[in-house]
Batch of 4 targets.
Target 1
Amino acid sequence: MATIIPQLLMQNHDDDVHSKIRLRIKFCSREADAQLYTIIKVAREDDLFQQIGRDIHFDLVDHEKVRHFPIDKQMHFFKLKEEVAKEFGIPVQLQRYWFFTTRQNHTFRLHRRLTVQEEAQMVGMLRPVSNNANNAELKLFLEVVPELEQCSIRPLDTGKEDILLFFKLYDPEKEQLRYVGNLFVNCTGKPIEIVRNLNELAGFDPDEEIELYEEVKFEPSVTCEHLDKGVSFRSSQIQDGDIICFQRRIQPHFMKEYRYPDVPSFLEYLKKLQAKPEDAEWAQKPYRHYHQMFGYDQFIDDSAMPASEMRQQLGRKDVQTDDSSASNDVTPTRSQSNSQHSLERRKKSKIDDEQSSKLNESIAILVGALKDMADKEKLPMTGGELWAFINEMGLDDELATDAFVFLLRRSFHLKGLMATPPGLRKTVLVKMMKDVKK
């Protein structure tokens, strides 16, 4: 079937085959391919560097965005190694592959490395071994042996007691979580023993004090536990494929300077944005977009003309008007009465022009004053950030909406609320709203 179907599709033009029949043929072709080939999705460390912090934050990699290799199920696994060598230039003898698996907590992590016996099998035989019933695709992680990598940090020689861990670095100032590398560690060792290695991965000083957290799960809620550096990895139940997040240690009296001072609070924030994608989009928009909701953006737009410049333009217009009036003064009249009426009309017109000029100047001054007031009342955060800030207080939807509108128009109240300890913000906000209503 695999050979007949492509020929059938080549011989028949779209107009010659009924659309439903053609769709059925294509479907059968895909089914035939699924029976003959396994799509092997190979994730490399380069994919982790590119995706974590940009496309994803939780787990390690999105396999839909990595290189896919269709391999005949009757071919030995060595065929994949040859294809990878051609694609990435990684010698066959330096490639080591790991299975992924879905854990009980719904995370998708590395499971174990393929054995020599498994790599000698045919591709079609590997899928059941990897703890997944889907035989149409295979998701792997490619580990490159240290000799190929030109880096100063060398993983330990792997043995039965060694486990492969992945590390993410959190920067509370930039509110950024990114991947920095992986290390083999001995499960009987302690995190304190690899602090210098982690500081080197992060570009910190060797003796920088850091805090470590294990990224446990994110469904249905985030679990990120502090890791005691003095307790062994085995005692902390750390295993192959686990993710450790770390950051510089922040002194307690500086914690309030950051919106999300530690990894757990930042992951909670990301989880909320994930639950409400519109918040993530709002957070990227400048605050000026929200002026349009209230219909006064024309007064505070950055392109608004300053009052002084508007007065100068109005002044130039007045001069032109006076010149035209002066030219009309020398126009001869047929009678004294007509001249008198003409003179009165010109005087009245000049008075009207002066009044109009003064009115325009007053309007210009008012617009400038409104713009100055708007600049002073500018919020210290974007609309999206304000919504996320309100959500952190655990308000119900109706109260959260009222609070958003309330704070959006009152930068002074918002600044005071930001200076309030997090545990008291909800109480203070409710009191602010009640006082204003009074």
Target 2
Amino acid sequence: MLLLRLLLTHDQNHGPCHRLQVENVREYHLLFWNPAIKSVSKTLPPPLPIHADEFLKLGFGYDDSTHTYKVAAFIEHMGYEHRITIKLYTLGDHDPVPENCWRHILTLPSSPDDFCLLNTPSDAKTLNGTLNLLVSYKFGPVWSTDQLVIVSFDLRTETYRKLSLPREFVRMPIEQIEIWGITVLRGSLWFFHNFIETEEFVLWQMNEFGVEKSWIQLVRIRIDGASLLPLFTFENPDVVMLSNKLEDEALLYYPRDNTIEWHAQTLRCVDAMDYVQSLVLPY
């Protein structure tokens, strides 16, 4: 579990950014924050430049083999030579931090595995020393459910592997599905999606991480006029907290008796993660 949090800002007020914007380059600045001790990192890595024809997803996790925190930048290059490169920054690896602290780890192959990042608000999900990202298996729009796979990047070995989604899902027509994604709840990897016509929300759990045949469907509910996203699960009692994207409201679902408890207050939240208090310094 994470003991620190990663903050990402697109800074337009730090001198060189104005010049870089003319050149169609954005600079992303990283901060490390531990709210338990109200401390923010003092030594920052150099800004991460992203060009106009590039798309960025980030992941932040803990490498228990070296006892270090790492940030992975998944950068999709949309030009003629389409590819996704992975760069890695290790917290506390350098003092002072050099300009070339972002290490180029690998490039996801463009053939036969032409991965594409999805335009979703969520970044990579951390679990058991890995960063997990839902991607499209083919370049261009998602035309079928079997295009969607999970890329799991191991922070220890700095290698990746593919994980398939539930077999029942990849057999469904893409026209029936909307708003899909992955999340980490209760120490497991989960996949979710919404049906358009039946207005059903479905939540799958990978019961044994890395074992593709271990997907089980735990939640399937129908709510009129709702488009749901999972936020959190409570073990005692067994409760799933969901966000209704269409109405900016939260609800609690009780799977045992199939009941729903609505919370009408505004909730502009599309993602959530576990946080464990720690005295670790974000340096």
Target 3
Amino acid sequence: MAEQRCRRRAGAHADHVRRPETVKPERADRLTAQELKVLRLVARGMSNSEIAAALVIVEQTAKTHVSRVFAKLGVRDRAQAIVAAYEMGIVVPGE
């Protein structure tokens, strides 16, 4: 009985939660070659300093690229960017 009430409450709450839109594949076309590289590195869990080292750029430039990727994809954080990268096929599990 309690479990059933809990499910009902969770279901009612879920109706009010704003779910992020799925990133449209054509948004990937907006990314430059460098931004695609940055997105792949973000998807691998790299920090801005690690991205900078991998691409031989300064950290501030890496931060700028990450911010532009977020803006072009319409995502607000790394987690959403990673999901978008997988959904668009930019990153494949096991790469």
Target 4
Amino acid sequence: MSKSEDDIVVCQESSGIKPDVTEVDSLQFMEGEESHLKINHFLLPVLTMEILILMCLALLAYYLRFTDEFPVFERPIYCNDSTLKLPIYNYNAIFDVNLQIFYTATCLLPPIMILLGELGYWIFSAKPRKIIRVHCSSCRITLIIRRLLRFIGAFLLGIFSTSILTDGIKLMSGRPRPFFLTLCDPDGISCKLSTSDLINGTSFCSTRDVDLLRNARLSFPSFYASISSYAAVYTMIYFHNMLRMHGTYALRPLLLLITGGLALLAGYSRLMTNQNHWEDVAIGYAIGTSVALYFGIFIMNLFQEHTIKPKPELIMPPRPEDNSRFFRWFWIPRISFGKTSSRTYRGVYSNGKGTKVPFGPNPAFQQDLHQKIENFGRKQKKQDANTVLEETIESVPEDRTDQ
């Protein structure tokens, strides 16, 4: 989003309370010795517009999925097509994914998992927390609220887009389901009168239920496969880029395998219950995966947070544990040993009351130490030169000295 100087109001921070060292303003600059903040006036209008667009997409997805406002293309079929004469429901199937369970798992479970992940990021992360000020310096949007709005909003936008794309292709293709002829039960006269056993329309069907016949022509692509693959891939990208703490190397692949396995089971159940052809499921997986990759990689930028890094000469970098809210709330005593390596922290750095002690070597102390070493070296060289000169003078004979 482009921001011009005319559209950005600059105000000076007047609060006497120093902010948390882990909170960094997204837009700030220095003018002399005064710290100024830039107010973002674009966030609320853009957020309102995005909410309206999301509501329009949700309404369109609802009409495409649950109403018959849009007609279905009636593709001509053959009376003797064996691929369309399977049973309406395969009762010998190992399992079947219920519609309520499917919508709950794909529409509610990923936002709940993102919410838990953001709570963990807010509690355990030691990275600077970027805040945004909207319309005034006191109107602040914290990190967790902004990230939840972004990630869950992008997920809903992607799932509505996937649903619209899938149902739009269904209406335009009009491919019959594997049980279409079993449900239609055409009479023999219509099939005999048609040329090459090719019949069109639904007038030759014995079944007069319009809704069932309409649903029987919506096989390509699989709605279960596209929605489940989108939800799974989007969640997998989120967990793969968020679970980077030490000790989560086994948890991350476990969550990815469980999420991907559930999506595969959803598509496999459609094949076992004779609801879709294998081509429908494959194309459904391709559509959902493509949309999820686009939203996760290009729109959400792999769920990474870009913050302004503080200057090391102005702000002393704290320990990672001291920046984490978990270690602020629950103090854990630390013990130091006499022998420490260069990567080991020395001393007690947190007392549970917010007191922080700089860690590592002090730059001023190092500079002073180097200066003293250089001065000592110069003094030692000078003393050595004077000693050599005195020895040379003493070694000169006395007669030459008299001369």
